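Chapter summary example.
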Amino acid sequence: MSMDVVFEPALPQDLPAVRDLLAAVGLHYADLTAAHLDDFVVCRLGSAVIGCLGVERYGSDGLLRSFAVRPAWRGSGLGPALIAQAERRVQGQGVRALYLLTTTAAGLLEALGYRPCARAEVPAPVRASAEFTSRCPADAVCLAKSLEG
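The structure predicted for these 149 residues follows.
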């Protein structure tokens, strides 16, 4: 990973770059607004956003969403670093568990301590999110991680 890479909270003006990155990797972005970016972490190389990850908060639970790294940077450690940054950030804000659905990153996330779980195990407010009800396919892997302890 380059020493010029910086991880930081997303800013409202990052919205176009984050949407472009999500589109480039085939992830949903149509619902994403500047308000969502309050709970996003971005990875920058100079002024370019090369990675992003968001958390939707539901009380003490969170939903990881919009996890993307530019293809040229995959395998460089940016993905795990983004996840660690997001986990630390929301843990400091009282989030005790994170949940997500993925069709592509299950192996990486399991290596980082996420465990497969049945959708029925996910707290109802998270299950009611658009990610669970309409955006992610039924065959997406459901994963969870406790941030306690």
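To summarize the output: The chain is about 25% helix and 30% strand.
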